[in-house]
Batch of 2 targets.
Target 1
Amino acid sequence: MKIAVAKGDGIGPEIMDAVLKIFDANKVSLEYEFVEMGKWVFDKGFSNGMTPEAQRVIEELGILFKGPMETPKGKGVKSVNVTARKTWNTYANKRTFQTLHGVDTVFSKAGILIDLTIVRENIEDTYGGIEHMLTHDVALSRRFITRPGSMQVIRYAFEMAKQKGARRITCGHKANIMKLTDGLFLECFYEVAKEFPDLKADDKIVDDLAMQLVVKPEQYDVIVMTNLQGDIISDLCAGLVGGLGFAPSANIGDHISIFEAVHGTAPDIAGKNIANPTALLLSGLAMLRHLGFTENAAVIENALLYTLEQGIHTGDFGDRSTPSLNTTQFADAIISNFGKTPKANARPLLANNPETPAVCHLDRNAMMVSKEDEQEKIVGVDMFIESIDQPDSIAQKCLHHGGTKFKLLSISNRGTQVWPTGSKYTNLVNQYNLRFEALNEQALTQQDIIGLYVSLSADYKICSLELLNMWGDKRAYSLAQGQ
Ligand code: NAD
């Protein structure tokens, strides 16, 4: 069986070499095809951070084992890590966090054992990276949460929780504030929950969840979340079990899956051969299990757990009074412990049953669409304009723009209503949302909206617009704060 391997940037090559050395020493019957991906590939002029040959090989083999890759901050190229996850629709990012004996934390010292899995949606949310400067002062990020995308990741989370024998699955969200986006994710969660009546399904608002995870992490089992919130909460969970050096991650898709550590390229320690390879090793073990190499995975994991129990450590953790090993020595220590059984959490030796991933060759992009029963009707439009005028004066000017089709309903600034009612204590920025609704509840067309756009553009620069739709009797847009 062959998989694609990308060593990555920074500490990537060092920890990948250590992990592959452990696999080879355990005679894992995998072949590796090394592909060109990462910062250095950007620098060679490939704008998505990978060569076309790398893309071909990964699509052919269906499995990518990768080291961390650098993303330049701020302006410039997009993250190759995110590009890879999105391009190949690895919609579920599974991150497991377990107490490891020998890795002391405040919880392990108090005898509190943690065994948590976070499933983070991996494609959507603000990670679409669709951002615009609407004025010199105002930046906008579009946050997409979709029904098919949410159903896909939530169904994976429930199936995984059932397989794991989990007692509880929790949806983390902020649906009290983001009623449509997080609200949709939460709605999908409870829709899928109906298919799994034996699993206790509940939800928690993300800020409360963050606090609860720090105070009583042992009460959670599987948590499913949207992309950004899941990213933040999973780093918090890494902290609970000893840090990023112990946090593995699997990006699961229907056709292609990517296995990598949660941490980045650690530029501060790159090239010194002192990085901790454990997170990448744990990610590699998840990959071996995914491919059916269950016995190899168990032998290696038992050796890793035994090594940690012996107090053997790299420089980033463990007892500072005993000398730390470098990356290569740490890998060798694990190899020398093959066949040993750890005192805690020993994995059963289940015979290998390798299964080559079923790579199907797609000749077109899959369209995911859910059934839409309700009647759709345009009832208005939000026009986002640039202006430093006061709300009353904008409203005055807009009276005639509405014509016979529209009435100006409200004006808001940064989501807070400032006209017809509001407060002089609300600070303003140079971008307003003018909400127009249909006069006398008449049905509107897109041409009507364009008519309003043309009229309004005589007075203001229109930065963007959004249609106000009704699906049957459901409002498909939010109200402004105070409206
Ligand atoms: P980082 O995870 O690279 O480092 C944070 C801290 O943790 C550093 O002090 C580092 O030395 C330490 N650390 C991380 N991994 C370690 C390990 N295995 N052993 C010992 N110490 C370790 O985060 P960062 O500095 O914010 O990011 C550096 C680069 O990595 C950025 O370009 C970022 O975009 C990229 N990144 C990539 C991935 C990925 O490839 N999936 C994930 C996160 C960040």
Note: The domain at 92-252 is CATH 3.40.718.10 (Isopropylmalate Dehydrogenase).
Target 2
Amino acid sequence: MEREREARRRAEALAEDRLQDIYAKQQQIELLNTIASTANQSDSIAHVLRAALTAIGGYLDWPVGHAYLARQNEHSGASELTPTGIWHLASTQPFTAFRECTEDMSFAIGQGLPGRVLDNGEPAWIEDLANDDNFPRAPQATSSGLRSGFAFPVMVGSEVACVLEFFATKPTETDPDLLWLMWQIGVQLGRVIERNRHEEHLLHNASHDQLTGLPNRRLFHDRLTHAIARAARDPFNLFAVLFVDIDRFKVVNDSLGHPAGDELLVRVGQRLLSALRSNDTVSRPQGESTPRPDDTLARLGGDEFTILLEGLNEPADALRVAERLQSVLHEPFSIAGQDVYVTVSIGIATRPYGRTCPQQGAQASDAPQPPGRTTPDDLMREADMAMYRAKSLGKARCEFCDPGMQTQALQSLALETDLRHAVERGEFIVHYQPIMSLSQDGITGFEALVRWPREGGLVAPDAFIGIAEDAGLIHRIDLQVLRTACRQLAQWHADYPDAMLTISTNLSPRQLTRPELVGEVRGILDATGAPPTQVRLEITETATLGNLDELIETLRRLKALGIQLAMDDFGTGYSSLSYLHRLPLDILKIDRSFVAGLDRDEYSQRLVQTVIHMARNLGLEAVAEGVESRTHAATLRALGCTRAQGYHYSPPVAAEQATELLRTAFTAA
Ligand code: C2E
Ligand code: MG
Ligand code: MG
């Protein structure tokens, strides 16, 4: 009886399994049939791909699917996958970030999920997108809620013609049966492509210019729309549209004939492209602090090209690119046996409007204007108008749509050129601001602050440090200042050995990632004979934005030289407390904005007091910056602060005056 029941149960279970099996098979067959019949009925690759994406997405009950087309890269000729913009999306909203980033990328062989399929012609599965080391879209996928995915090839003969990818919102395990089914579908789709090879070009041609192979007006418009949307989300994302028009193109065309004109357009396109940032997104080093997206060069038609630049720091960056474009056209083109000289007129429109104005000292208009309701057409029109102005002003030149921006960008470029010369010639001078002991009102040391003699005056650091950082010059300036300051310290130390004076210099956060830094500092200490224990290096909280472990390691190695480390402008930075105890610091400099508030509000007082307490708890010396009055000094003293620096005692002064201050203080004492 018992055995009979057991046997029945097993038979039922078996039947159930079979039934499920059959049901699954039926579904698979249905899927294959659907795709086969669309494939047979339609001669449009786009249509068949879309139908396949929808059918497979429905079958899997997965929300996202997308198709790539294999093509040759415009520069390298190597095979790569470009997005078709043909999607299966169960709903649009949650996947926007992922879709945009996918449509902005091409994948070379081996890169990312589709690149792996392109590499070996085999399906690939990623069980956990967030932890795959070859899935560059992981951040966007994660933020869109996607967790796993797979991709498979559409083969024509032994060649990968397309790749389809699908994504699920849950982790999944590799399913070989499913991949086998997808492989079958890939073969079916391959037949459609083989039948309609010419149309593959159409798919590309819909977005590309036939003559030059560059993106066409439509694709450019698309990219620009995305750029505007990105800038609306991140108002500091400065981008620019350049309108480039060949000067006197008509003359070439008329005198050498149309084929020569066409050839010239193709070759001008190639040279322009060579001056731009590579279009290959994926191979760019990860972890760059602000990776700039690709530049897009498009041909609108005739002799008109447009360029989209994103992720700029200031309008002058667009001008730099424009100058590069002019210079790659310098060499003549040899066309139809003749040397043809080409210049272009360039118009530039940027959004949002620039945010730095170096000539006015500090970051003048730090709040960028919102992009408003800028449309792609607005920007194209502005750039076009600027280009016309460039033409009317004598061709071979570049104009901004906004004349104010033009002036600003030109000044910024001139400043950079001058700055380079100043660095080459070591023209910077150093001023010294005394740091006082609050208990004894005596000088305990100096902060060395750089000054740049220019056009009869002294330029303050805020007006050029940022530019020097962007131009990769800052480390040379910082080291020049450190060398001068150490030499000065050695001199003062010899003259006033009992004073035990300290010298502080500032290190740009960009310095701290340079592997040579520690060796260079050691070299300067050795060469100048400055006592290392009396040398202090000031860093700012920005330094902690990068790799904290690496920073800590660098700081440890600096401290091993015997020098002391200070956190400058404390309280203005980012994550203050969470990392502070991990950094091997000796000094905390309280930012002058808090000190300035001491007379005005109780909040600042409490804040300063908290910082002083915290410094004490962490065993750090607190130095107050920007002490401008007797009240400031008294309040700080009452709050337990021991050191101070500010106009109340002395502004930064030249070396001779600083020596004079010392002489008065120490001879009187
Ligand atoms: P910092 O390191 O915080 O230097 C203190 C700044 O506050 C100096 O401005 C100083 O002149 C100013 N200051 C001093 N006392 C008072 C006061 O009582 N009231 C007010 N309102 N300001 C006071 P400076 O010399 O213009 O330098 C500005 C910043 O430029 C420095 O801020 C530092 O971050 C940077 N810097 C200066 N020299 C160098 C350098 O050689 N290398 C690098 N990387 N940065 C430097
Ligand atoms: Mg400082
Ligand atoms: Mg400071």
Note: The first helix runs from residue 2 to 41.
